[in-house]
Amino acid sequence: MTDTQTISPLRVVVLISGSGSNLQALIDGQKNGSLPIEIMAVISNKAGVKGLERAEQVSIATRVISHKDFDSREAFDQKLLTEIESFSPGLVVLAGFMRILTEGFTQHFVGRMINIHPSLLPKYQGLHTHQRAIDANDSHGGASVHFVTAELDGGPIIIQAKVAIDDNETSDSLAAKVLTVEHKILPLTVKWFALNKLTMAANNAVLCGESLPPQGFQWQDNEETNRLIDVLVKA
Ligand code: GRF
């Protein structure tokens, strides 16, 4: 029996605004049995995006809620909240969802909503993260997964992965490299949450009962990290 077969699947709703390659990593994990989840719905604030197609291809329910149809952020967030809750999710994943959320919305989901952000937080909250890292002559860029709180890209960090910034790096080339590690750390975070190893307590991310350091678990693509993850998952 694998570690993912002993508990009932976690109900997950994924919010997107675009390509949905991170969503695809979650779909693949669900399909190949490595993630004990069931993606109940994919909700986009933009019609016609590739992420919606990816969900439709595997018969996951989709919804489009365009922010343009609402007079205020509050009204949009209220509709979004109601739609998400209609699927009774245990976890909400923001996977390239490009809207700022109101405090009431983030409070409602606190501890059960995570976001993937393409920088080594707390550096470069907000937009244009790759160009900002290049302009600052940083040696590394990367990605972070964090619990969502009212502060934009500011909630407790769960995990980070770094990639080297090479000479002549462009924003596009760095984005592509960072996406490859995003596709590792987002499913891993979801797995920890689904296995009840990960919680948020007192504004900290807590993994297997221990508060994570401020910059979260430092993921690397090597044997040692894999061994540590294995131990954590089986603990
Ligand atoms: C990712 O870089 C994510 O970190 C950011 O938006 C991008 C979404 O990519 N928030 P995709 O839609 O998952 O391909």
Could you describe the 3D structure shown?
The chain has 235 residues and is α/β, with parallel strands linked by helices. The protein has one domain (10-234): Rossmann fold (3-Layer(aba) Sandwich). It is built from seven helices and eleven strands. An eight-stranded mixed beta sheet has the order 3-2-1-4-5-6-7-11, with helices on both faces. Strand 8 (198-201) and strand 9 (204-207) form a beta hairpin. Helix 1 runs parallel beside helix 6 (171-194). The longest helix has 24 residues, at 171-194. The chain is globular. The two termini are 15 Å apart. It binds 5-O-phosphono-beta-D-ribofuranosylamine. Residues 16, 18-22, 51, 95-96, 116-118, 143, 179, 182 line the site of 5-O-phosphono-beta-D-ribofuranosylamine (GRF).
CATH class: Alpha Beta
CATH topology: Rossmann fold
Proportion of residues in extended strands: 15-25%
**What is the molecular shape?**
globular
Number of strands: 11
Oligomer type: single chain
Strand arrangement across the biggest beta sheet: 3-2-1-4-5-6-7-11
Please identify the structural class as seen in this structure.
alpha/beta
Please state the CA-atom Rg, rounded to the nearest Å: 17 Å
Termini Cα gap = 15 Å
Unique bound compounds:
5-O-phosphono-beta-D-ribofuranosylamine
Query: How is the main sheet built?
Result: 8 strands, mixed
Considering the protein shown, what is the CATH homologous superfamily? Formyl transferase, N-terminal domain
Helical amount: 25-40%
pLDDT < 50 runs, ≥5 residues? none
Number of domains: 1
pLDDT averaged over residues: 96
